[in-house]
Specification:
about 120 residues; mainly alpha; Arc Repressor Mutant, subunit A; 2 domains; two-stranded antiparallel sheet; elongated
Length: about 120
C-alpha cells in the first residue's frame, strides 16, 4: 500500500479496510486479519494497526471477539457510509464548492454531469 504523506497512516488504513468492506471483499461477520497479519501485509508498525482497529471499533465497523479476533459488524455498511459522508462533508465538499464557485459552474451543469457519471459507471442496461 502506498501511503500519502499528507494524511495519518492509521486513517489511510481505515479507508483501506472500509473499502474492502464496501466492496464485499470482507463481508459482514467475516474475520479480518489480526493486528500482526495486517501490519506485515501493509509494512507498518503493529501499534499503527491497533490504532486503526481501535478507531474502527469506536465507529462500530469492526468488533473484537476476545480470544478469537476482529470481525466485521452487522452494521458496518451503514456505519462506514455515515463516517465517510461526515468526512466528505467536512473535508472534501468545501473544496468542491470553492472550485464550483471559482469556475462559475452552474448547478444544472453539475446535475447533468452527475447523471451522466451515474449512467456511465453504475447503471448496467
Amino acid at each position: 500500500m502506498d501511503f500519502n504523506p499528507n494524511k495519518a497512516i492509521y486513517l489511510q488504513i481505515v479507508d483501506h479496510i472500509c473499502e474492502q468492506i464496501l466492496l464485499n471483499t470482507w463481508s459482514v461477520e467475516t474475520k479480518i486479519p489480526s493486528v500482526r497479519e495486517m501490519a506485515v501485509e501493509l509494512g507498518v508498525n503493529p501499534n499503527t494497526v491497533m490504532r486503526t482497529y481501535d478507531f474502527l471499533q469506536q465507529h462500530n465497523i469492526i468488533t473484537n471477539k476476545r480470544g478469537v479476533g476482529f470481525f466485521v459488524t452487522a452494521d458496518s455498511l451503514s456505519e462506514i457510509k455515515k463516517y465517510k459522508k461526515e468526512v466528505f462533508m467536512k473535508e472534501d465538499l468545501p473544496q468542491v464548492f470553492k472550485n464550483i464557485y471559482l469556475l462559475d459552474i452552474s448547478l444544472e451543469e453539475l446535475k447533468d454531469k452527475y447523471q451522466s457519471f451515474i449512467v456511465d459507471n453504475y447503471k448496467s442496461n
